[in-house]
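Need residues for this backbone.
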């Protein structure tokens, strides 16, 4: 590859949901490739650090769909919310583990910001699923990152 194939960066890193970068990490084994995200990274000269909190927690891809039965990511972290798989299995411990591992990657790579997938039970920034309903709330990973003072946006904030 020649130099023109590698975008120049300003050295700043940013966590990015791997599915937005085109990696097949979603629960259904697909990606949510976003040209808006790629354009933003290039325009801002940011170096993406791809993360999938669910894979970091050890979950397989594909995997059961997960949603909140009560609360959202903040409630899960506080111990009074519940994320469950479509088969009724509690996912709180796994989602908290993935969030903690994502935070550690942020620390190791010097990330002060994150660009995450809206609607995800891990990465949702403004909304999540409570059962089958879209509601205001944050995913477990977004909640943990926000609680540490990190700037967190979703791909929908780029529009």
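Answer:
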């Amino acid at each position: 590859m020649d130099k023109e194939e590698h975008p120049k960066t300003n050295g700043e890193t940013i966590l990015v949901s791997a599915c937005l970068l085109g990696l097949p990490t979603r629960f259904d084994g697909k990606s949510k490739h976003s040209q808006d995200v790629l354009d933003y990274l290039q325009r801002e000269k940011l170096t993406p650090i791809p993360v999938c909190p669910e894979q970091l927690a050890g979950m397989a891809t594909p995997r059961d769909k997960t949603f909140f039965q009560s609360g959202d990511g903040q409630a899960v972290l506080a111990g009074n919310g519940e994320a469950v798989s479509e088969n009724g299995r509690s996912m709180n411990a796994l989602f908290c583990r993935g969030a903690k591992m994502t935070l550690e990657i942020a620390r190791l790579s010097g990330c002060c910001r994150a660009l995450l997938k809206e609607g995800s039970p891990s990465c949702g920034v403004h909304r999540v699923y409570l059962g089958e309903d879209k509601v205001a709330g944050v995913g477990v990973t977004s909640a943990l990152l926000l609680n540490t003072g990190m700037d967190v946006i979703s791909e929908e904030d780029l529009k």
